[in-house]
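Re: weekly structure request thread

Next one in the queue (293 aa):
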Amino acid sequence: MTDLTPDTTGLELDAQQTEARSWFEDLRSRICAEFEAIEREAGSNASFDYLAWNREDEGGAPGGGGVRGVMKGKVFEKVGVNVSTVGGSFNPEFAKSINGADKDPSFLATGISLVAHMANPHVPAVHMNTRFLTTTKRWFGGGADLNPPIPYQEDTDSFHARLRAACSPYGPDVYERYAKWADDYFYIPHRGVHRGVGGIFYDHLECDSDAQFERNFHFTRDVGEAFLDAYPAIVRRRMNADFTETDTATQLAWRGRYAEFNLIYDRGTLFGLKTGGNIDAILMSLPPLARWD
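Done, posted below.
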């Protein structure tokens, strides 16, 4: 059985990085268990297949690694849940675009990334990602957004309500700011459409003190818990709905839009490619089938 703890050979993690890494790995395990439980409810024995990978930094030095988890089942046509902890040095040109790396390209990043593409067109696809990145600065970022081929207001409302509740303790305008950030970010300019019905997106929650770290780490954990609470409930609500060939055609066309965003605009895809991550893990976000007419 694959060790579900990524290899961090060549990296020295401090207490904050270790704590964040452990949380992301624990969240991964609980999400995968919940998704497998949904497959059991549908009469499927599908399970996650895990692949560990290691990263080499510039010059071939060890630079950490990750574990890619993928499941293809009756409900989840393709779902990927990845965790990674990688570090080393950005290449000089890419370092200019990263917070705190313009003068010193050293970095360490740990996080979780999830994308689910569903068999039933009435069940929305979804994305969730949270991460802790260290350069000369350190910060949390991430978010979650819902991507239904066939939107239902009930699903949109319940997803956003749970994210609003997660944001509420951190300020009266936090949800509104991060929801707008998601709307602005998850947008496909060349199509003139949003990627889905939104969610939240945040970045550069800097941790210049222990108090800031605790607050922003707590918020990031709350986002992960909100996702784990909200999305499986939506899946169970829609997974047994009847659908037509027209519904499937709508789903495949929408997946094409999703693929375009991830390959052209998504920061996480670019970060993974620019830092020498595992190609299969980086591109696990792409749907198994899509269409362009």
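Helices lie at 15-41, 92-95, 153-167, 174-185, 210-238, 245-264, 267-274, 279-282. The chain has a mean pLDDT of 95.
Next request, please.
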